[in-house]
Structures are given as C-alpha cells and as structure tokens.
Amino acid sequence: MTADLYATATGLIERSAAAYAAGVPEGARDDGFFGPASVTWRVNTDLASPVAGLRSLLMQALHPLAMAGVDQHSGWRRDPVGRLAATSAYLATITFGERAEAVRAAARVRRIHNRVRGTDAVTGQPYAAGDPGLLLWVHAALVDSVVAAASLVGTALAAGDSNSYVAEMVAAAELIGVPRPLVPCNVPELNLYIASVRPGLRCTPAAAESMAYLLDPPGLDEDTAEIWQDVRDAAIAALPRWARLMYGYSAPPLTPGRRTEIRQSLGVLDAMFLGQPGVLEARQRINLRMRTARSA
Questions:
Q1: How far apart are CA 13 and CA 75, in angstroms?
Q2: To 10 degrees, the CA torsion angle through 40, 45, 263, 154?
Q3: Cα–Cα distance between 233 and 237 in angstroms, integer?
Q4: Mean pLDDT value across the chain
C-alpha cells in the first residue's frame, strides 16, 4: 500500500462530512424526489447508514463487470477516500436535494459512465458503466444493504416500510439511467432480482483487493480504527452467507451485547461526523423538515 493511501485514509470522516453538508440545501424550493415524509429520508438519517454503505460496496464489488469498471477507470487506488466522498455527495444530493439539483447530479454521473468502457480481464466480457444492467445491480445492492443494516444494527423497518423504501428508490434508479420496468419495487421483487444475478457473481482479485482496503483502511487514528472495526464487523455480518463465502470471510458473532457495542460505536461516529463544519446545520435542516412533515 502506498504512502498516498495512508494520507488519504486520514480524511475519511472530514471529506465525507464536507460532501454530505454540501448535498443538503438551505432554503430548498421543493422536496426533491422523496421528501421529508418519505421512508428514504428516515433511513438515510439512521445510525446504521455507514454499515449500509460499506455492505453495499461489498455486494457491488462481487459483480465482475461492475468491479472491472471501478478498477480500470476510477482513482480508488490513488484516492479511495475521494471516491467515497464523491459517492456520499451524490447520495446526499439525490436524497435531500431539490429536484433540479438531483437531476443535474445524475446527469454528471451518467456522463462519466458513458466514458467508462472496457473488457474485464477475469471473464473476458466487455462492459460499459452506463449499461442499465450494471446500474441496476449497483442500485439493488445499495437498497438491499440499507434494509439489511437497519434490521441488524439500526432502527429496523416494518415490512410495509421496507416495501415503501424499495418502491421510493425506483426514482433513484431511473435518475441514473435504469428504465422503470426493470427496477424491483418491493422486497420480494428485490430478493428475486438478487437471486437471478447471483450465479454470475464472483470475488475477483480486484474485488478482494479493494474491499480489503475498505475493511481495514490504513492511516486511521486509534479511536477511529476501533470504531471502523465495529462498522466492518456489522457490514460483514449483514452480508448474505453466500457473499461472505465468496470473500472467504467468517461471520462475526453478533450477540445482543455485541450489537449494543456496535450501536454505541455508531453513535460515537455520528457525533464525530456532526462535529465537522456544516454537518450539524445540515442535519438540523433535515430534522426540522421531517418534524414539520410529520405534524402536517
């Protein structure tokens, strides 16, 4: 691992926080694609969000063509934290931003995807990042991870809310370029879709390398590294058994006491996040709008 990776890892919280704060508008002119009364807003402010994010990356990386595009075209080796921060900014914008800004953000991502083409060295298959099939896998991995992480270490969603969240997130898939008829709109459809893709999944060398870095990023201070250990254990535990087997990971034992420890660490991580410039104000704007929507 190069010295550059050690340097960039130290900015994990700071850069992600800056991206998040920038994605939450002041004086929003509309409620965006979801709105403060949505399940999407609620789950994206849950303490389990870091676990969901890490689990989604672990799932996404198992698609060899999706991973090849990241490995061959992104700068994750030079600046892995920068890539995470950019993803954080995009998700904050499409979740909490105005419709026009969300559309602009999605258009920027689609333009980048249109330039990402190549051939996967493992399967020999060509890929294009703008392929709706690859985009759908990335989308499904994220949505499934949010539900799984909330159930394991966050505020578990009732069955109806889980279905509502999956249905609401169809809009996010459409924004990025997936035709609506292809997108699962409830949990059973999501499960069937993931099962249909599973035979083509594998842990390629690029997936193993990139995920090993994310699970144990160098350069973290001692306190942050201890918290990240808890995030990592929760993300691995939240994976389906078949996904853990592909990576060769053991399932961390999550006793009730261990889950409590992880939730406490997530609370500390959230406090560290809130201490970054602009984040507390952004969270206050979100919470105020959610309270107003509930009272209405």
A1: 19
A2: -10
A3: 6
A4: 91
